[in-house]
Write a structure and sequence with these properties.
By secondary structure, this protein is α+β, with helices and mostly antiparallel strands. Helices cover 19% and strands 45% of the residues. 37% of the residues are buried.
Length: 310
């Protein structure tokens, strides 16, 4: 009886000690910046200051390598504009003239980034689809070497100086928390552990993907043999890219698996050829309609991403 009591006391002591250590670790790793975001048309819209002016509405997009600023805003800020001599690449079948520029300072909450290389172009069509003024897009140029957390349920973006998951182990993945490594392709996080109907493909995690749950690029549709599924899918023209509206089709596939997260009969977007989605370094794109159920933390220092259900 006495030994049982001793074991009981020791067990409770260890639990209390572990709780204190966990609490200490948590309190020592507070965000260095935290800002709310609007989830308009399932796009992550944050308010930022540019050169001390604003706020301006900008998409925070992990799928974008170079920042974009609306041409009218760039002119109002007096930015130096150099004709790009080319048209913008991206979703949409129209062509938009771009200008090369540099934004001296971008402020996201208390976090400031200097001399951000950007392209300036007319974003009026994107603003019309969004239903409110869109002043630009921020991507890898402000995210590189940072740890950023998209808390979709709480509608908050957090930046950390060190990972809030210091001891995560990919071997412990389950349906509530998945830890995956990523690599950068065109400065966007690409993961390999994605399976469509049991077949492995590469997929980008795209927080600028709007209402897309999961999208399939033209080459992946062909290599996976999904032409029949695409032909049966319904037309869907709600998507918008930097070059205007994106014509696509919306339908079903049998299964989608991301790490230990399994989804049966998910709705996906099929991108046909010629809508600005050809010749990508990945076959699929994970969009906000999927991400919105998770707290998603990108550690660009250690190239890992954590999906956690709240």
């Amino acid at each position: 009886m006495q030994q049982a009591l001793q074991r009981f006391v020791i067990a409770h002591f260890l639990i209390a000690l572990w709780s204190c250590v966990a609490l200490s670790q948590s309190s020592n790793n507070q965000p260095i910046a935290e800002i709310p975001f609007a989830f308009d048309h399932t796009s992550v819209i944050i308010q930022v200051k540019l050169n001390g002016k604003g706020p301006f509405n900008m998409v925070l997009d992990t799928g974008s390598d170079v920042a974009t600023i609306d041409l009218a805003i760039a002119k109002d800020l007096g930015l130096n504009l150099k004709p790009g001599g080319q048209q913008a690449t991206g979703g949409g079948s129209e062509k938009s003239q771009i200008y090369l520029t540099k934004i001296p300072q971008v402020e996201i909450g208390s976090l400031a980034s200097k001399n951000i290389v950007a392209v300036a172009m007319d974003l009026s069509k994107s603003s019309q689809v969004l239903g409110k003024p869109l002043h630009g897009v921020l991507g890898y140029s402000v995210l590189k070497n940072r740890i950023v957390q998209f808390d979709y349920p709480q509608r908050v973006i957090r930046f950390y100086s060190s990972s809030p998951y210091p001891t995560v182990d990919p071997a412990s993945n389950n349906e509530r928390r998945v830890v995956l490594s990523f690599r950068l392709g065109d400065d966007s996080p690409i993961i390999d552990d994605v399976y469509v109907n049991g077949k492995k493909i590469k997929a980008v995690i795209d927080t600028g993907g709007g209402g897309t749950y999961f999208a399939l690029m033209p080459e992946a549709i062909s290599s996976l043999g999904l032409e029949p599924e695409m032909s049966q899918a319904e037309p869907d023209s709600r998507g918008v890219g930097v070059n205007g509206l994106i014509t696509s089709r919306k339908g079903k596939i049998k299964t989608l698996r991301l790490g230990a997260i399994n989804i049966d009969s998910p709705t996906v977007i099929f991108y046909p050829k010629g809508v600005g989605k050809d010749h990508r370094k990945y076959g699929g794109a994970i969009g906000n309609a999927f991400l919105q159920d998770f707290v998603v933390t990108f550690d660009y220092l250690n190239t890992t991403v954590v999906f956690e259900r709240p």
